[in-house]
Amino acid sequence: MYDICKDVSRSLMGSQHENWFYRQLIWSQDREATWRVIGNQIVISRLNTTSWSGSFENLYNEGQWGGHQANCNRTFETMSACGLENNIMLSDDSHANSVSDLVWLEEHEYDPAAEWVAVGVEFPGTAVSSTGFGEAVT
């Protein structure tokens, strides 16, 4: 990943919106919300894109949250430090459907058998008019 992606001053949302987002997450816990369903404009999970681009120089899609890794880390840190559970991200702009555990990789190695597993899950969806990366299914 490029060094700029890890720059702590970078924010996908801007600092004011980012702080508002964290306050809303914490407030949802104070309200005793069972679920936190978060609409997200782009994919937050790290998707290894070498099979799409054929390059090992840039494994992750910096056009998604991968280009703002410090912001992603702050989001996962807030969820983890505040004990926020049942976090579900509904994301778009991936041209493919998938499901991912949200894992704070700078803090933990991914282990699907571990008790904590992840700070949440993500369900990225494709656009209604997109066939994804493959061919249309008929």
Task: Quickly list its features.
138 residues, alpha/beta, 4-stranded mixed beta sheet, 4 strands, 24% helix
Could you characterize what this model shows?
The protein has 138 residues and is an alpha/beta fold. It is 24% helix and 13% strand. It contains 3 helices and 4 strands. The chain has helices spanning 15-30, 50-53, 69-81, and strands at 36-40, 87-91, 100-102, 120-124. It has a 4-stranded mixed sheet with strand order 1-2-4-3, with no helix packed on it. The N and C termini lie far apart (38 Å). The relative contact order is 0.19. The model has no long low-confidence stretch (mean pLDDT 79).
The gyration radius over C-alpha positions equals 16 Å
Mean pLDDT: 79
How many E-type strands?
Answer: 4
Main sheet: strands, sense, barrel: 4 strands, mixed
Helix content: 10-25%
Which overall shape is indicated by the principal axes computed on the Cα atoms? globular
Structural class: alpha/beta
Which strand order do you get reading across the main beta sheet? 1-2-4-3
Tally of individual helices: 3
